[in-house]
Design goal:
41% of the residues lie in helices and 15% in strands. It is built from 13 helices and 10 strands. The protein has helices at residues 59-65, 93-111, 124-134, 136-139, 152-164, 168-180, 182-186, 192-198, 201-213, 225-245, 293-296, 298-311, 319-323, and strands at 5-6, 18-22, 25-32, 44-48, 70-74, 117-121, 142-147, 217-218, 256-261, 282-287. α2 crosses α3.
Length: 332
């Protein structure tokens, strides 16, 4: 049954549980559920948000997972309670990956040193998650990756293959995807995106987009959303065109599960076609949602995450776990 849901986090009173230092920034971390212990290991999930959101964008998904997992999400640099750092040089993927590793290390060194985590990404969190699993520093920390986004390299190869074989169908698909990504391209421009958000039109634009594509959601603007968005424009300017125009081939051994939102106006299922080439272990599923599935379909998304994580468990198995394993081999 359809029901109204809050789009953003303004109504939440949850405060960060801890902070992770990463170079010149401090990253605000939220947690849900019981942490793993030697007596009762648990899988640990790290949820990464996109633009122009914050850690609590994931709150409904985290609440659905907290009974069975230890769930972690953090405000990316420039957002929410993390350091409000500005400038495109601070938003290249290298410092973003270092932030992710700092969060993982801060949490895991406290609760379960040496245990790998399961990375879950939405929007930009999913985009640079592909770089994390292709990086040796990431693969030694990450047991599996669930994403709702292809990488920028995947989008680049999707477009390149169509322009290199310019049939009417391929050109229609290529120009259609360029149109879908026109908002992202707009965010790479100087000055105009800042004016959009400072004028209040940015919030109005997101209200209209969310209302049109996700009628299950009620939009509620974050306090400080405009500042978050203006700082976070650096991620578009530092990475988007550079990676889409000059894509690179990379392959990871980390298992990947892609969740495709069938009505996503920006990232339709077709644009994920290159994703299987980037991992030795690939699977995919769909969710009946647009771009904001963590808000409109949190239970369905949580179920997909839980199924994949349990199939790629990273926590050590104890005698207590063995005693509670049923005939199907699934721990009760």
């Amino acid at each position: 049954m359809s029901r109204s849901m809050k789009y953003s986090i303004e109504q939440s009173v949850k405060r960060p549980d801890l902070f992770a230092p990463s170079g010149d920034v401090r990253l605000a971390i939220h947690t849900w559920g019981e942490p793993p212990t030697p007596a009762r290991p648990r899988e640990v999930l790290v949820l990464v948000h996109g633009f122009p959101d914050r850690a609590l964008f994931w709150e409904k998904v985290a609440d659905a997972l907290r009974e069975d997992f230890y769930v972690v999400a953090f405000d990316m640099r420039g957002c929410g309670n993390s350091t409000p750092i500005s400038g495109r040089r601070h938003y290249h993927f290298t410092p973003l990956l270092n932030d992710l590793y700092a969060v993982i290390d801060t949490v895991m060194n406290t609760v379960s040193p040496g245990q790998k985590v399961h990375l879950v990404g939405h929007d930009w969190g999913g985009i640079y998650g592909w770089d994390a699993i292709g990086d040796p520093e990431g693969s030694k920390r990450i047991a599996s990756f669930i994403t709702m986004s292809p990488s920028l390299d995947h989008v680049g190869f999707y477009l390149r293959r169509r322009f290199l074989k310019p049939t009417p169908r391929n050109l229609w698909q290529a120009f259609g995807q360029l149109a879908r990504n026109s908002l992202m391209t707009f965010f790479t421009l100087p000055l105009l995106p800042e004016l959009l958000f400072r004028s209040g039109l940015g919030a109005l634009m997101f209200r209209r987009l969310v209302g049109h594509y996700e009628p299950r959601i009620t939009f509620r603007k974050n306090e400080g959303m405009e500042g978050d968005a203006i700082r976070y424009l650096g991620i578009y300017r530092a990475n988007l065109l550079q990676r889409v125009l000059f894509p690179k081939v990379a392959k990871s051994a980390v298992p990947v599960h892609v969740v495709m939102a069938v009505n996503d106006p920006f990232l339709p299922p077709a644009v994920f076609e290159v994703c299987p080439e980037s991992t030795a272990r690939y699977s995919a599923s769909t969710v009946d949602a647009a771009h904001w599935a963590p808000l409109s379909r949190p239970q369905e998304l949580a179920a997909a995450i839980a199924t994949f994580v349990l199939a790629n468990a990273a926590a050590p198995i104890t005698a207590a776990d063995t005693a509670h394993t049923d005939a199907t081999g699934v721990t009760a």
